[in-house]
Specification:
The complex is a heterotrimer of chains A (410), B (256) and C (251). Chain B is mostly helical and 256 residues long. Chain B contains 12 helices and no strands. Chain C is of the alpha/beta class and 251 residues long. Chain C contains 10 helices and 10 strands. The longest helix of chain C has 16 residues, at 162-177. In chain C, 42% of the residues are buried. The chains are: A mainly beta (410), B mainly alpha (256), C alpha/beta (251). Chains A and B meet through helix 4 of A and helix 3, helix 7, helix 8, helix 9 and helix 10 of B.
Chain lengths: 410, 256, 251
């Protein structure tokens, strides 16, 4: 009995502590800062619509901050709109504008430092230098935020979602556009990145390094200045993402530099100047991807080893595979190539002659980019045909010994 | 002029060669679309035909026609007709029949089967231009060469030059001077060969992704813009008009 | 009607016409004779504007043809040496094309030769199916079709059978009576006997003489044109030999 009373008492205590404070220009509490000051751990602060110009709002208590109909938090170009540090803090439903810009210091609209279990969801962030900046934190969720910048040059622009030295972060359902890098990770591990749209950022749609054991799925990276670039990382898996319209000489659907033990599966590479560029990559599985309408579907540099490129569809690409050397230490077996002209006499669905996906002219262009303009001329067609029958310049080992006759259903 | 070209055209349209040419184009084009599940692959093969076969047929057909019509041209010139009118009638008759053969042989299958309409239409446009340009070339060489053998020889040489030798020379130059910036040079060189010009025009649509890289971007920026399009078609029109005008000039002073 | 003034023409090194000055008038039937390569065809083509002279002028009805352009050819009927026509064109089409070009009143047209040669029944036949002789008949019919004041006939009887040849000669005689100026070049001098009023003799591009037939007959005492000319050329060996040869072959 005494135990029961104790339980009820504790429960009532808790309930009594968890109060809701309303902030609004017509309410008793007029400023968010005041609301936070009044709140205790576990409280909820609801903010009514309006424009709040209060300088930098610092949140260190474990509270839930909810904006009703997107109240505007205006930094007046003087401060970072919100600074978060601590544990179990939730921010949602706000519109952040006029965050401070600088070419020297990384200012941000929402700055999360030394925190854990932070939830940033359903906010709008407009024209920030950095929109959401997370450092030295764990178990955070960044969900359904809409981030829009108007960056024009790389030097002065900041990133959309910037995470540094953190772990177990969930980045989901966000849309990021107009920043330098859409999503930027450095020393971030065991994180999950899903369903985000990173479009029209001036440098990379996604950029990470030293960020191991992360999982990327169902994201869209479209029309970013230099596509997607990921570096110095192992154990990454990328599935069901779409990489499209990344156009330019140094723009890639995805640039893989020193990536090891990773998986790239079921993705679509559509209309990129280069679908995948692999540099110094080892033990990567590239499987069940669809490469369509790219200039170069894949460029695999000679310093890559033990990668398996298999069961992919290569269609309507100007060049399927390009490489810069003669030695090939990766496997290209069992893909569908629309340029394959072999036959299948035993009707097992596998072409009876091997396919050499590297064309002579792709190597010529590698050496002399200006020569691109002779592509598809009679001369070049002739040279390619000769090379196909008697390979002299293209790497002989770069070959698909089991090309399929029909495309895979992906 | 229309009176005379009407009769010239009528005569050509009844000739077996032009009917065979139309059928050949039609069968090849339809066959390509039927054989390839992927219509852009068929378009690619068609592009090769347009860039290689079309100029050759235009040149040879026109040259042979000119020499076969020599006495008829003489007769027409003994009538109260100006030389300009007679030659232009012959030109428009030949040109129209070749263009028509192309439009029926390639145009119809492309419009029926091509999935990418904009590439299909550019292909037809370029084919029409190349037909006209090489007819014009053939008139120039024929008017200049007195006998048929030499005329056909010159036409073949011209074809060989524009389809193969020219590109070979450019490739050689690109590699010899690879240390220098050659992007603008390639732009100029492209304009100096109607086949290259047509090829780039279609490539900008077909290989748009690849054209965004390296020098391609330069081409895309230049030829892809509306002023670039105007430039392309301006060059094409010049390529058609200049040999014809030279042929007319020569023909006016020529002894028949 | 046609006045030629110091006309010169060179083909590379070959002198085709050498300072030719001559005048042709209505009612004349001028025989252009001379050995192969003497410049007969070149002269005809120059008059038609097919060959451009190096120097000298040609006046048609006192107008320089260089300035006149092409309209003067409205008044000329021309029968070429070789008649080759577009293969698939029918006789009917050819005639309607020519009528279209000249745009003359239908009643003024001369269908005489067409009827006599029975070409009307072959109106739908394409040119490639016709024999050389028939094509020659077509050429002749074209020349006379528009009743032109000037007729230029280049080797008209070559390739025609004797009967057709007679028909053509009759036609020429009849036209001559109408006051037409007729220029005929021919190797077959016997053909010209009854037609000619004047003879123009060309050799190596030079005009050796241009004389009235009566004068020639008087000078030489020969009635036959061939013999008369042979007599006339005596002393100028090569030409005379040529004439003798022709005379031999024609007999």
């Amino acid at each position: 009995m005494r135990f029961l009373i104790l339980v009820i008492f504790v429960f009532m205590q808790l309930h009594a502590f968890s109060t809701t404070i309303i902030v609004g220009q017509q309410k008793a509490v007029k400023s968010i800062k005041k609301g936070i000051e009044l709140a205790k751990d576990g409280d909820t602060v609801k903010v009514m619509p309006g424009v709040y110009k209060e300088g930098s709002i610092i949140v260190k208590k474990s509270i839930t901050l909810i904006g009703i109909h997107f109240p505007v938090i205006d930094g007046e170009s003087k401060v970072e709109n919100m600074l978060i540090s601590g544990r179990q803090i939730s921010i949602s439903g706000f519109h952040f504008i006029n965050s401070k810009h600088s070419s020297y210091i990384d200012y941000s609209a929402i700055n999360i430092i030394d925190a854990t279990k932070i939830n940033i969801s359903n906010n709008k962030i407009t024209d920030a230098h950095f929109a959401i900046h997370v450092s030295n934190s764990t178990h955070c969720t960044i969900d359904r935020n809409s981030i829009t910048g108007h960056a024009t040059i790389t030097q002065s622009a900041g990133n959309g979602i910037h995470i540094w030295k953190s772990a177990n972060i969930l980045v989901t359902n966000n849309s990021i556009t107009g920043h330098r890098d859409g999503i930027y990770f450095e020393f971030v591990t065991h994180s999950d990145i899903r369903n985000n749209k990173s479009i029209n950022n001036i440098r990379y749609g996604l950029h990470f390094m030293f960020s191991h054991y992360n999982h990327y799925a169902y994201n869209l990276f479209k029309n970013n200045g230099a596509g997607v670039a990921v570096m110095y990382t192992h154990h990454v898996s990328m599935e069901n993402n779409i990489f499209t319209q990344n156009w330019g000489a140094s723009s890639y659907g995805i640039l893989l530099k020193d990536i090891t033990d990773s998986k790239i599966i079921n993705n679509q590479f559509l209309s990129n100047t280069t679908g995948i560029l692999m540099e110094g990559c080892n033990r990567i599985d590239v499987k069940r991807n669809s490469f369509n309408h790219n200039g170069w579907a894949m460029k695999v540099q000679a310093n890559c080893e033990n990668n398996v490129i298999s069961t992919n569809n290569f269609k309507n690409n100007t060049f399927d595979i390009a490489t810069n050397g003669t030695s090939v230490m990766s496997s290209f077996d069992h893909n569908y190539w629309d340029k394959y002209e072999g036959y299948d006499l035993n009707k097992d669905g596998i072409g009876d002659v091997a396919y050499h996906p590297v064309s002579l002219y792709s190597m010529v262009i590698e050496k002399n980019p200006s020569a691109l303009f002779l592509l598809r001329s009679f001369l070049v067609t002739l040279l390619d045909k000769v090379e196909k029958t008697m390979p002299a310049i293209t790497p002989v080992e770069l070959v698909d010994k089991k090309p399929t006759m029909k495309p895979f259903q992906l | 002029m229309i009176k005379l070209s009407k009769y010239v055209l009528y005569n050509i349209l009844k000739s077996k060669i032009i009917i065979a040419y139309t059928l050949f184009l039609f069968i090849v084009a339809t066959g390509l679309f039927q054989m390839e599940a992927n219509s852009s692959k068929a378009i690619l093969s068609l592009l090769n035909i347009i860039l290689i076969v079309l100029p050759l047929v235009s040149l040879i057909f026109t040259t042979i026609h000119y020499y076969n019509s020599y006495e008829f041209i003489e007769l027409m010139l003994s009538q109260p007709l100006s030389r300009k009118r007679v030659l232009l009638s012959e030109f428009s008759g030949v040109c129209f029949s070749l263009v028509m053969a192309f439009c029926i042989g390639v145009g119809i299958p492309v419009l029926l089967f091509a999935t990418d309409v904009s590439i299909g239409i550019s292909l037809i446009l370029i084919g029409i231009f190349l037909s006209i340009i090489f007819t014009s070339f053939a008139f120039y060489t024929s008017v200049n060469a007195r006998d048929k053998a030499r005329g056909i020889g010159t036409a073949l040489l011209l074809w060989f030059y524009f389809t193969l030798i020219y590109d070979g020379i450019i490739l050689l130059i690109l590699f010899t001077f690879s240390d220098y910036p050659l992007e603008n040079f390639t732009l100029v060189m492209a304009a100096l060969n109607p086949i290259d010009l047509g090829r780039i025009f279609i490539m900008l649509k077909m290989d748009s992704s690849a054209m965004m890289g390296y020098t391609g971007a330069l081409f895309k920026d230049f030829f892809g813009s509306s002023s670039g399009m105007a430039f392309t078609f301006g060059c094409m029109i010049l390529w058609a008009a200049v040999p014809l005008l030279l042929a007319l000039r020569k023909f006016r002073k020529k002894d028949l | 009607m046609i006045r030629i003034n110091h006309l010169n023409k060179k083909f590379k090194k070959l002198i085709a016409l050498n300072n030719i000055t001559v005048q042709f008038d209505e009612g004349q039937v001028v025989s252009l004779i001379g050995p192969n390569g003497s410049g007969k065809t070149t002269l005809i083509k120059t008059i038609l504007g097919l060959v451009k002279p190096d120097s000298g002028q040609i006046y048609f009805r006192d107008k320089n043809i260089k300035q006149e352009g092409f309209t003067y050819r409205n008044e000329i009927g021309y029968m070429p040496q070789i008649g080759r026509y577009p293969e698939n064109m029918t006789i009917g089409q050819l005639f309607s094309l020519l009528k279209n070009i000249r745009n003359k009143d239908e009643n003024s047209l001369d269908y005489d030769l067409l009827k006599q040669y029975n070409l009307v029944s072959m109106y739908d036949k394409p040119m490639r199916t016709l024999s050389g002789g028939t094509r020659q008949k077509v050429s002749a019919a074209i020349a006379f079709l528009f009743r032109p004041p000037v007729l230029i006939l280049d080797e008209p009887t070559a390739g025609l059978d004797p009967l057709s040849s007679e028909v053509l000669k009759e036609k020429i005689l009849q036209t001559k009576k109408e006051g037409t100026l007729i220029l005929i070049s021919s190797h077959i001098l016997s053909d010209l006997d009854d037609l000619t009023t004047d003879v123009m003799y060309l050799q190596d591009g030079k005009m050796k003489f241009f004389k009235n037939l009566a004068t020639i007959q008087e000078d030489t005492g020969e009635i036959k044109l061939g013999k008369a000319i042979a007599r006339l050329m005596k002393g100028e060996d090569p030409a005379a030999n040529m004439i003798s040869e022709i005379l031999k072959t024609n007999r």
